[in-house]
Write a structure and sequence with these properties.
Carb-bd-like_fold, 6-blade_b-propeller_TolB-like, mainly beta, about 675 residues, 64 strands, four-stranded antiparallel sheet, seven-stranded antiparallel sheet, carbohydrate binding, Immunoglobulin-like, disordered N terminus
Length: about 675
């Protein structure tokens, strides 16, 4: 009688049978998933089962057995029926790159040996002549999450592994509770904090982005933040029992508790010193480990124009981190200097302090107070001179408000109300205050690096530009439906009733465009807009400021967004199918369309396309209308065939050095927030 036996596994051992008329074996498959060999009056019960093949046995003089199967595999057993590893075997299988058609180049390592192989185009790999034993295999490919398979046992034959799929995303946790992810300034690490929105302490981890490996820091953490150089992470721990201020050293991989009893902590700008708040006092933990007391502070104040009315007290480090401005419980405004370890009271800060802000260069501190007569006063404290200058006082609770420093700190604009509204300007060069506009300014913005001020009046909707150096105010027009200053501050585009008008502020030259929905390029040198058309419209067009050229990019546009210099992202109508997602470079008029997006979905939504280096990430759809497919397009190599990252994605966020995306699923295996590091 011939036997038919499955491919049987004992801790990963592979057995299958071959034809032999001399001494055949029979097999019984048991209910518990094991199989029993019946050979020469002896039984061998082994785990596993599979496809059937013929096997025979031979019994040695010492009572051991050798079972030989038709595919050449041989298994040895001692007289007690225990398997004996033969000399050598092989391991083979396939490794696949998720979302790709070709899978060549995946590195497969046999841990504990020098052996390694790479996959062929179909993903196949094999290790031959492997000594019998139990092994661990690793699978790696650039930009993919490495995989590992343990307890792979080799016998005299071929062990065929299940396919291994390398994906882009490493799960960093479930989608709920909600997670806060923060990137270090160097992009080398990130922190992952659970459920921070409820201000309830939760688990905090820090991840090595390149290795995709987390380190647990705390189970009761709040308010994590990095130092400016990314070398340290500070967080509040166990707030319910008077919080501990803990600092994690990223390089040394150690934590130190530097203070207990805090309600908050943050790094000073540009340093490793930590500003620590308690309910009634302020401290600075200096870089050398010295704890400095700033004294008592006013930790709460009431502002009935806000909700809730009780607001946190003012604590305002200077941009260079050398000074901290705050209020004493008496209401006095104080500036503390770390270099001198001393505090001084700012003169002129009488009454209730409403707001305060530093100039961009940290040379001035502006503040607004409210006195008992309900009059507001805006003042300026000169850091170098240690003196205070009153800029304006209103004759009612209305204004002054909305002080805005120029980017170069050369001036500051603010509204006032003395009998009527006005817009005034403080000039650093002369120290004087001049009237820019007699009337109510709806909004104002510094342009051309701070040398001019763009102003729109509230009632007449008149637009003008004020030259800070000369004091001249030049009208630009009125009754606009929208005003859009350029990112570089050199131009402004206004929406007319029947088109657009682009104004260059340097010479006030104007260009009229037949279009709507303008969007500036990131460098302010060009803009995109839609031009209505009866057929195949609207058209997307680009306008170059320097040359005055209009370029037609594409037609049938549903929506568009502008990213990076020269790139458009388009949603293009395609009959009854989901809109095509296209990428257009207006300089070459290229419109590759690597995917689809939901019809009518604005590309300015949360899941809008994002650019990292020259890769574009977007949430796409299939021809069937099913969306939630996160994809990547490689613009550097002109590869406009989108690479799938994952599916069932609800949203994603692109950081400087990595990307995270979220999948909401009832399946614990799929649900979660994922980390992708290959974004450049």
């Amino acid at each position: 009688m011939r036997c038919a036996i499955a491919a049987l596994f004992l801790t990963g051992l592979l057995f299958s049978c071959s034809k032999n008329d001399a001494s055949p074996c029979t097999v019984t498959e048991n209910h518990d998933g094991t199989s029993t060999f019946h050979c020469g009056g002896k039984d061998f019960t082994l785990p596993g089962g599979g496809s059937k093949a013929d096997c025979t046995y031979l019994e040695a003089p010492d009572g051991s057995f050798t079972i030989t199967c038709e595919n050449g595999i041989t298994a040895h057993f001692d007289p007690q029926g225990r398997p004996i590893f033969p000399g050598k075997g092989a391991i083979t299988g396939s490794a696949l790159l998720y979302g790709m058609q070709e899978h060549e180049g995946i590195l497969v390592r046999l841990v504990g040996t020098d052996a390694s192989v790479t996959t062929d185009v179909g993903g196949t790999w094999i290790f031959a002549g492997v000594p019998a034993g139990t092994y661990t295999l690793t699978f790696e490919a650039p930009g993919r999450v490495p995989e590992e398979r343990r307890n792979v046992t080799v016998v005299n034959g071929v062990f065929r592994m299940d396919p291994v799929v390398l994906k882009h995303g490493k799960k960093i946790g479930p989608s709920f509770p909600m997670r806060e992810v923060g990137e270090s300034p160097t992009s080398e690490t990130l922190y992952d904090l659970e459920d921070s929105f409820a201000l309830i302490p939760h688990r905090l981890r820090i991840w090595d982005v390149s290795k995709r490996q987390p380190t647990d820091l705390s189970a009761t953490a709040l308010f994590p933040s990095y130092s400016d150089d990314g070398r340290l992470l500070v967080f509040l721990e166990d707030r319910s029992s008077l919080g501990r201020v803990t600092i994690w050293d990223v390089e040394a991989r150690r934590s130190d508790v530097v203070f207990s009893g805090a309600t908050g902590a943050q790094f000073m700008p540009g340093s490793h010193s930590v500003l620590i708040r308690t309910e009634d006092s302020l401290f600075v933990w200096a870089e050398g480990g010295e704890l400095l007391s700033l004294g008592a502070w006013k930790s709460r104040f009431v502002d009935w124009d806000r909700w809730p009315p009780e607001q946190p007290g003012l604590v305002l480090p200077s941009p260079d981190g050398g000074i901290v401005a705050f209020q004493r419980p008496s209401g006095a405004l104080v500036v503390w200097t770390e270099a001198t370890r001393s505090a001084e009271v700012v003169g002129g800060a009488d009454g209730d302090l409403l707001s305060a802000q530093w100039s961009p260069d940290g040379a001035y501190l502006s503040f607004t107070t409210l006195d008992q007569a309900v009059r507001q006063t805006v003042s300026l404290w000169d850091r170098s001179a240690g003196s205070t200058k009153v800029l304006a006082t209103s004759d009612s609770f209305m204004g002054p408000f909305g002080l805005l420093f120029a980017p170069d700190s050369s001036s500051a604009a603010f509204r006032t109300f003395v009998g009527e509204s006005a817009l005034s300007l403080w000039r650093r060069s002369t120290g004087d205050v001049v009237r820019v506009l007699q009337g109510d300014a709806e909004w104002f913005e510094f342009m051309e690096g701070g040398s001019s001020l763009l102003v729109q009046e509230t009632f007449r909707a008149a637009l003008s530009v004020y030259r800070v150096g000369t004091g001249a105010r030049e009208p630009l027009g009125s009754m606009f439906f929208g005003v859009h200053p350029s990112p570089d501050g050199g131009s402004v585009v206004v929406e007319l009733g029947d088109g657009l008008e682009v104004i260059r502020l340097s010479d006030l030259s104007k260009t009229t465009l037949n279009g709507m929905n303008p969007q500036w390029g990131s460098d302010g040198k060009w803009l995109g807009f839609l031009q209505p058309a009866e057929t195949n419209g609207p058209f997307l067009k680009a306008f170059e400021i320097s040359t005055g050229r209009e370029l037609r990019v594409a037609g049938n546009i549903t929506s568009f967004s502008v990213h990076e210099a020269g790139l458009f992202f388009l949603a293009v109508k395609d009959g009854q199918k989901p809109d095509r997602f296209c990428i257009a470079d207006y300089m070459r008029n290229l419109t590759p369309c690597p995917g689809r997006v939901g019809s009518g979905t604005p590309l300015s939504a949360l899941s809008a396309p994002s650019v990292s280096g020259k890769n574009v990430f977007f949430l796409g759809c299939g021809d069937d209308g099913v969306c939630g497919r996160l994809k990547k397009v490689d613009l550097v190599h002109g590869d406009f065939d989108a690479i799938p990252i994952d599916h069932d994605v609800s949203d994603f966020r692109l950081y400087n050095g990595f990307l995270t995306y979220t999948i909401f699923s009832e399946s614990d295996e799929s649900d979660g927030v994922y980390l992708v590091t290959a974004v450049e």
